[in-house]
Amino acid sequence: MKMKILKTSIKIIGIFGLCLFLVHCGGSKEALSISDQEKNAFEATEGDTVRIANEETEYEIIIIDPGFYTWLNSIARPEGYYSQSFLENRNILMVMEWNRRVLQPGQFNPNLYELQINYEREIDYGYEVNYKLYNYFIYFQRKYNQRLGPFLPRI
Prior knowledge:
The protein has helices at 36-42, 68-74, 84-102, 127-144; strands at residues 2-5, 10-13, 49-54, 59-64. It has a four-stranded mixed β-sheet, covered by helices on one side. Helix 1 (36-42) runs antiparallel to helix 2 (68-74) and helix 3 packs across helix 4 (127-144). The protein contains four helices and four strands; from the N terminus they run ββαββααα. By secondary structure, the chain is of the alpha+beta class.
């Protein structure tokens, strides 16, 4: 899994056939309910690309991960469901955990956590970038059975 955020772009790239490791994060893990529709999105092998550009802030996000586009349009909550401040707060927490895992390749699968994300609290990335990033984190956690924070990745 490659993820890179630069000043002018955010890139998230999925890799096919990843070997997953289960990581104990403390406490008990609650099993997530995954629908057949969601399983079908997770099992997609064709890469679809989601590109979001915010010309005002000069930031963009590019996500290439099989099934994400389908999942985003059929499973995820619609745009406007969450406030921008909610998305920003959750993204900050998940980016911090993501970056921590990138720096510990012996403990966390380096195929899932390859690159750090440069996401700064002071920058207004706009609603769309925050919405897509947040939903990618939810998709990622559900698909790869990961936990990037204290909250269950629910839909």
